Amino acid sequence: MPALALRQGVAVTLPGPADFTAWRQAARGLVAAEIPPEQAEWVVAGELPGLLAEAPAPPPSAAPFSVPRAFLDQAEIAIRHSDRERFALLYGLLWRLTHGERHLMQAATDPAVIRLSALVKAVRRDAHKMHAFVRFREVQAEDGPRHIAWFEPDHHIEEAEADFFVRRFASLRWSIVTPRRSVAWDGQALDFGPGGRRADVPPDDAMEPLWRAYYASIFNPARLKPGAMRAEMPRKYWRSLPEAAEIPRLMAEAPRRVAEMVERAAAAPNPRPQKPRHLSMPPHVLRDMPTPIDAPADPAMALAALREELLSRPDLPAFAARATQPVFGEGPVGAALMFVGEQPGDEEDIAGRPFVGPAGRLLDRALAQAGVERRDAYLTNAVKHFKFTPTGKRRIHQSPDAGDITYYRPFLAREVAAVAPRLVVSLGASALTALTGKKLPVLKTRGQVVTALGGQPVFATVHPSYLLRLPDAEAQAAGFADFVADLRAAQAHTQGL
Ligand code: URA
Questions:
Q1: Where in the sequence is the domain holding 385, given as residue range(s)?
Q2: 248 and 316: one domain?
Q3: Which of 338, 346, 381 should be mutated for ligand 1, with most atoms under 8 A from CB?
Q4: Ligand 1: residues within 6 Å at CB?
Q5: Residue 442 and residue 466: Cα distance in Å, rounded?
Q6: How confident is the model over 411-423, as pLDDT tens digits?
Q7: Is 268 exposed, middle or buried (0-12, 13-18, 19+ CB in 10 A)?
Q8: Ligand 1 centroid to 221 CA: how many Å?
Q9: How confident is the model at residue 321 (pLDDT cuts 50, 70, 90)?
């Protein structure tokens, strides 16, 4: 690749604003040619016309070099940031990593390392907003319905996040239009094009009244914090969210509604003070426990509110940001049996559905043998995001810790209250702890009915992946038979209730 040597060094033109492969190739060339960061200039094609040059290709004899994975992983995300200095920042770090500072990424106080991590965080946050705030409008095209959404990202995330929407809406035909880019999915392939205008996206569709009614119903005036609300859902997103049309009215009405709530509470008879449960638990655990939650008046709406809340919470554990999406429960409200597993695995994370991977297939077989219809049951998990350790191309399941279980427990409690099953079946230790608030030994408790913090009966059994880990085929067959027997017993229990 020819290089254009400027008086002050080399100018590199990248084909796109977030093209990591091109940046990486050019940067390798610059390092091999010993061009120091202050002599490298980075531009994006089309942004500064006239300055067209290419980075030098590594000379044939250049020794290959390697850089820490932690740098590459972060650089691949940071390059999507809209900061003009991002390429130079990355090249400066690469230069230092290859010139005697191999352990630079561990220097947590180094200003360049800190800056890199800030860029990564900002890009992740932007992606999270895109996942939560893209709203499709249905339009009738000549060849059938198509869904179109307008979104204004702060950073160059359109291409990187397109896969998220493909996985989520694989069977729809959709386009997301942003000021810089448009992304279209026809059910088979992605197509990227130039940006568009908000006016290209229709403002209304039949779903809007539903979104608005839903938002108004979950809006709690007593919790109104306009500052936090604006930070979490900046005004620029309001315009494309159908439910946002309700925000000004709901905000204006909030003080009156709070006053009414206070009046109603004062007029109501004093509730009897409740004896705290499980006094043997340490105080911080008690604080995090849900008090028994009444079944909501509209369970379907309550479950929808739960979903929406999980999609946009700012305080999710760090691992949630690496997951593709939260995985919600599925099944009918009022199901006789509700199964609670530990957390979604790799396949569940991608599909956005619980129990569709290896453990789910084993559970399906056991349910079939026990005569339980999967579609009649409600299946969910104690933890709603996939927690994993990335190793090369694989994502290795990491067990949730006590803090993770405590964090998601209120969601599970609300889900159980909304589904209101006759019997909850806990699959494995995490589910049993999440439901009961106690660390009960699974193998000793299996087959017994204990009480959830919310008062519901919980039938304890093992997790299907426990069966997959049994040492040999014989043990697995026996373990499977015992598991099927547990499922039969759970079903029989619902019939006797
Ligand atoms: N394991 C679980 O606990 N839940 C799932 O959804 C899948 C595997």
A1: 284-495
A2: no
A3: 381
A4: 341-345, 348, 354-355, 357, 359-360, 381
A5: 11
A6: 999 999 999 999 9
A7: exposed
A8: 36
A9: confident
